[in-house]
Specification:
- It contains 13 helices and no strands.
């Protein structure tokens, strides 16, 4: 594929597109990392087949392939991809939901183009499988509307540390009391309680 790139086929040459799409459909998952790279070179095109192939790669059983797709989303975003990811939020497979939330979080870094993403991430906090990914990106986006939803799941084991770190990054005093309750809760994991205590030290509680 590198020779094709040098020849300028990133300009959506139809021959290149057909070769890449055929490889995406026919190659075993273990051999698809290079295909994902080429899908990113092509980018969105009118038929939508490239974006469909990207979503199919995100569902790959090969974790390295799905990770390659994650990197691709930093530079390749489109309404078709976003719609497909939102649909994946309802997937019965917990891992697929988690991958969709992580990808949507990448979209959410551009708040002007994707203003609906924070609401999707906040809603995903209710899903134990997706909670850690949602909390991480909420911390990145720093949407303070998420403080109370984060506090509501603070005592749940799934994604707990990501929830704590999201609250640290949001730095909202409403989180102080729930964090203190977590520190004092002896039924919680000792390391989690220590992390909550460290998080509390980041708050100004003098007032």
């Amino acid at each position: 594929f590198s020779r094709h790139e040098e020849n300028g086929l990133q300009r959506q040459d139809p021959r290149f597109i057909e070769v890449v799409l055929r490889c995406a459909a026919e190659l075993a998952p273990a051999n698809q990392e290079g295909v994902v790279h080429c899908l990113g070179i092509i980018g969105p095109e009118p038929s939508g087949r490239v974006e469909d192939a990207v979503i199919a790669a995100l569902r790959s059983p090969n974790f390295r392939v799905s990770m390659a797709v994650d990197h691709l989303f930093w530079n390749m975003q489109s309404p078709r991809l976003k719609t497909a990811l939102v649909t994946m939020l309802r997937d019965p497979d917990a891992e697929m939901r988690r991958r969709a939330v992580w990808a949507l979080g990448i979209f959410g870094t551009d708040a002007e183009k994707n203003p609906e993403i924070p609401d999707l991430l906040i809603a995903a906090l209710k899903d134990p499988a997706s909670r850690g990914s949602a909390a991480y990106h909420i911390g990145e986006i720093k949407d303070r509307r998420a403080v109370e939803p984060l506090c509501a799941v603070l005592f749940e084991r799934e994604g707990q540390r990501d929830v704590i770190q999201a609250l640290v990054r949001l730095r909202d005093d409403r989180a102080a009391h729930p964090l203190l309750r977590l520190v004092l809760d002896t039924t919680q994991d000792e390391e989690v309680r220590k992390e909550a205590a460290e998080a509390l030290n980041r708050f100004d509680l003098a007032g």
